[in-house]
Amino acid sequence: ENDVMGKLPLRGKRVMITAGPTYEAIDPVRFIGNHSSGKMGCELALRAAALGATVDLILGPSAIKVNHSLITVHNVVSGEQMYDAAHAVFDKVDVAIAAAAVADYKPAQVAEEKIKKKDTSMQIDLVKTKDILASLGTIKKDQYLLGFALETQNELENAKKKLEKKNLDAIVLNSLRDKGAGFQTKTNKITFIEKDGSVTEYDLKTKAEVSIDIFDKIAEKI
Ligand code: CTP
Ligand code: CA
């Protein structure tokens, strides 16, 4: 009834999006994290909802507040929590987008008490976190699976490798070569790479505009 103009192409679809950074605890007061703001993922969630989809936004620590009747926000802190939240909804969604900047490593142990300062240097043992997107790629059935790739060298080649390795339908290459693109910025310069090999390059745009371009591509395929 809200779709009289046929403008809600994702009505009846469910979309899952991971977004933001993850924080990996060192001790009760410290963590390893990164500068992701969560903005790109939140814009994607808002775009999906504007197109009529029901959205699960799995959001790491972010200052952004998302308020929309079609969006359920699942707040998480660590990569492990994000992994669990993503796997809890994945089999119910039509589209899954991994826009989060998940920490690649976490402390091998979390100290129970605040670590006291002692010597002039210290080491923290790190272990790899689970790759959420790669795991979804191994269990996916009919879901359209989209990843992001942040590269600083051999961009296209590395992004294509990630698409294949993680069994994705497409990957968004985030180009950091342009000033004004990437973390803590309002704009992104993306290249959309699909598993059939097609490559679409876009101009530097706001993250809201980028989210429109991305869902135009997704809507063609689902
Ligand atoms: N990703 C994920 N879980 C991880 C690491 C990455 O879901 N533990 C997802 C990201 O959300 C992104 C994609 O995988 O959609 C690629 O992330 P990126 O950091 O560019 O690549 P990595 O595979 O982590 O490899 P590297 O950082 O070495 O380039
Ligand atoms: Ca990484």
Structure commentary:
The protein has helices at 39-50, 79-89, 132-139, 155-165, 207-221; strands spanning 14-19, 24-27, 30-32, 54-59, 71-75, 95-98, 105-107, 126-128, 144-151, 170-175, 187-188, 190-194, 199-201, 205-206. It is of the alpha/beta class and 222 residues long. The chain has a single domain (14-216), classed as CoaB-like (Rossmann fold). The strands form 4 sheets. Strands 5-4-1-6-9-10-12-13 form an 8-stranded mixed β-sheet, sandwiched between helices. A two-stranded antiparallel sheet has the order 2-3. The radius of gyration is 18 Å and the shape is globular. The protein starts with 13 loop residues before the first strand and ends with a helix. Cytidine-5'-triphosphate binds next to helix 3 and strand 9. Its EC number is 4.1.1.36, 6.3.2.5.
Question: Brief overview, please?
Answer:
This protein has helices at 39-50, 79-89, 132-139, 155-165, 207-221, and strands at 14-19, 24-27, 30-32, 54-59, 71-75, 95-98, 105-107, 126-128, 144-151, 170-175, 187-188, 190-194, 199-201, 205-206. With 222 residues, the chain is of the alpha/beta class. It has five helices and 14 strands.
Number of DSSP strands?
14
Mean pLDDT: 94
User: What is the distance, rounded to the nearest whole angstrom, between the alpha carbons of the first and last residues?
Assistant: 22 Å
Task: Decide which structural class fits the backbone.
Answer: alpha/beta
- Specify the CATH architecture: 3-Layer(aba) Sandwich
Q: What's the number of domains?
A: 1
Major sheet: 8 strands, mixed
Name the quaternary structure.
single chain
Strand order of the largest sheet: 5-4-1-6-9-10-12-13
Q: Quote the CATH topology.
A: Rossmann fold
What do we call the CATH homologous superfamily?
CoaB-like
Bound molecules: cytidine-5'-triphosphate, calcium ion
Overall outline: globular
Low-confidence stretches: none
SSE pattern, N- to C-terminal: EEEHEEHEEEHEHEEEEEH
